[in-house]
Write a structure and sequence with these properties.
Number of domains: 1
CATH topology: Nitrilase/N-carbamoyl-D-aminoacid amidohydrolase
Low-confidence stretches: 1-35, 156-165
Helix content: 10-25%
Mean pLDDT: 88
Shape: globular
Number of helices: 7
Structural class: alpha/beta
Largest sheet: 6 strands, mixed
Strand order of the largest sheet: 5-4-3-2-1-12
CATH superfamily: Carbon-nitrogen hydrolase
Radius of gyration: 19 Å
Distance between the termini: 51 Å
CATH class: Alpha Beta
Strand content: 15-25%
Length: 329
């Protein structure tokens, strides 16, 4: 082995060491784990919508804020493992899922190149899947955003180093919320309708209130999106049924999704933990988020949905999984 080869080997070994976040064990992964796997679900994208309960990171105690971010991140890892075990190729989390949706002057701001996003990027590479989550972002220019991002694996059959391809664990897409609500005094309003590829299918993101303006859906479809992914943090009376009513314009044969002939996947933050999903210990108070998850087909038909309920006590965590056809027509 010559000196150049030894140096390259040493650099690769260093790059493949996963750094530990507090409370999250470091995991070493090999070059083989980052390599694209064979397509186990040809012609489809198996999407998992994790309607997760989140804790907040805008309190007066910076250390407590950081601890809550790490707790949210551990919850992400739990749902990713569970969804991946069921064959999920895309696992999505609600609006501001890493920070928790609550804004104040004491918000702990995160970065797209920060350790939280990198932890999910490593998980995406390890599992060979796409992961989408939300952060209160402060970018390199100091601007602040409500951001939903997607990290993903290398494309099947392509090397992670192939020019024009995203490497395993890279950010492959992002969206800055356009229609601001409670965060209005704290972040910039987005203007872009970004479209990016997930397993070869074009996807665009709308965050919560963005989906109240039909023009945002139309802009994504016009840019080529065939899947519109819409993470929410919405109360709508604190019930699943209330949230479905709030988004009723999306569904049905004459609804916005059917008019655009796209697939839609939308879900909401949960107000309560679900005992089925091994919640953290301690009492559980309802945080008011309605929960809910909904897949809509290009004809406006409901393909899969968390059961509706008008009871606030049913606004629990949910993991809804469905195969979206992505084969070329």
């Amino acid at each position: 082995m010559n000196m150049l080869t030894r140096a390259m080997t040493s650099m690769l070994a260093a790059a493949l060491v996963c750094l530990a976040l507090a409370g999250i064990g470091a995991t070493a992964w090999s070059a083989a784990s980052a390599a694209p796997a064979a397509d186990r679900n040809p012609g489809h994208l198996r999407m998992a919508l994790a309607s997760m309960k989140c804790v907040y990171s805008d309190g007066p105690d910076a250390a407590a804020n950081r601890a809550n971010i790490e707790a949210n991140l551990r919850r992400h890892m739990y749902f990713i493992d569970r969804a991946a075990a069921q064959g999920a190729e895309f696992v999505g989390f609600p609006e501001l899922s890493i920070n928790g949706y609550r804004f104040s002057e004491r918000m702990t701001w995160l970065a797209l190149d920060g350790p939280e996003v990198k932890a999910l990027a490593r998980k995406a590479a390890e599992k060979g899947i796409y992961i989408s989550a939300g952060i209160a972002e402060q970018d390199a220019d100091g601007k602040r955003w409500n951001t939903q991002f997607v990290v993903g694996p290398a494309s099947p059959g392509r090397s992670p180093a192939t020019p024009g391809q995203s490497p395993a664990g890279a950010v492959v897409g992002w969206h800055h919320k356009i229609w601001l609500t409670k965060e209005k005094a704290f972040v910039e309003a987005g203007t872009d309708h970004n479209v990016f590829e997930v397993k070869g299918a074009k996807m665009g993101i709308l965050i919560c209130a963005d989906g109240t303006d039909q023009k945002n859906l139309q802009a994504l479809a016009a840019a080529g999106a065939r899947i519109i992914y819409a993470p929410h943090a919405n109360t709508t009376g604190g019930t699943i049924a209330g949230w479905y009513k709030f988004r009723a314009a999306w569904g049905g044969p004459d609804g916005w999704v059917a008019q655009l002939k796209v697939h839609a996947a939308l879900h909401n933050m949960a107000g309560l933990y679900n005992p089925e999903f091994h919640p953290p210990p301690g009492p559980d108070a309802n945080s008011g988020w309605a929960s809910g998850a909904w897949f809509i087909g290009p004809d406006g038909r409901t393909l899969a949905q968390m059961p509706p309920s008008a009871q606030k006590g049913d606004s629990k965590e949910c993991l809804l999984i469905h195969d979206i056809p992505i084969a070329a027509p």
